[in-house]
């Protein structure tokens, strides 16, 4: 149950006057399940191409477990102050998410009114909204990150620090967005800078949305790119040694739409990722001389060192058998170009699932995913890549509870 509190003493640092004026909500979500993956690379001296199956108790296969606080204060004249603090964690181990940051998922303060909403701090960009509305991530969670260019298209939600974000008021179903991440480097506004734009239109059963994001290299500190965009470390093209501070290292577009009729909901999304700084990484066809490739870094991998361009297609359908039971399915394909090679890689994934709601706060879900790679290394569905093998199947049964 969400708890609306009148006192900001929950956060332990507010005056009595503020306590009387501010409405605060404490909330959370816990998601955990049992997962089976049939092939994960397990090479040995006797079998360099070996794989093995894996059972595990995981956290956040559908949504990352989290806790948070959010609130507003009425300032009069239609204006409100707002804040949102949210941290992620793993149910199976109790460990903090986002590298141990207390509020690594969201940490913003802002103002809203007739002019729209302005937020300052750390949070996701508008592509996350487009992906949630129109891609398979809503129904299949982290199971689709690999086929979505190792999450470089931001379908799984990446964040930017030092961010200022503006959303217009809702205008007959249309909202527009602009986001800017400060690199905070003396003498250079472009170093570590990130920029995002977006729009979404929803009218009854129909919706359509668009998002754009680009990131620039930060300075090199301990081998890590210090860009305001915290998602760029996943991509080899954003490794600072491949360019100069301020160079654009990633560009991402996403376009999606959905339509609902009766118990059916159809949706689709297309995303494109460019890594302008991706370098030549060898022209040997994948699997010809080596038996594994590290997803996101090696040549011929999703978002890898010579993967300069990717297109991702994501189509799906939901069918409500009742108010409590939904059937879900989707098919995805991503297509890859590689610097220094005429090889064109391809990943294809099929997903099927079911979701049963015991109540508005608790549901049981189960789904299966089949991922196959052609002319490139497979990033795997979850829990590890299959190495030399080009196919992997993953299955999970999970329980999600919201409070």
From TrEMBL:
PROSITE patterns: PROKAR_LIPOPROTEIN. PANTHER family: MAJOR OUTER MEMBRANE PROTEIN P.IA, PROTEIN YDDL-RELATED. It is a multi-pass membrane protein. This is Outer membrane insertion C-terminal signal domain protein. It comes from the Bacteria. Keywords: Cell outer membrane, Ion transport, Membrane, Porin, Signal, Transmembrane, Transmembrane beta strand, Transport. Homotrimer. Its main location: membrane. SUPFAM superfamilies: Porins (SSF56935). Residues 7-372 form the Porin domain. CDD domains: gram_neg_porins (cd00342). It is found in: Cell outer membrane. Residues 1-20 form the signal peptide. InterPro entries: Gram-neg_bact_OMP, Gram_neg_porin_domain, Porin_dom_sf, Porin_Gram-ve, Porin_Neis. It holds the Pfam family Porin_4. It comes from Collimonas pratensis.
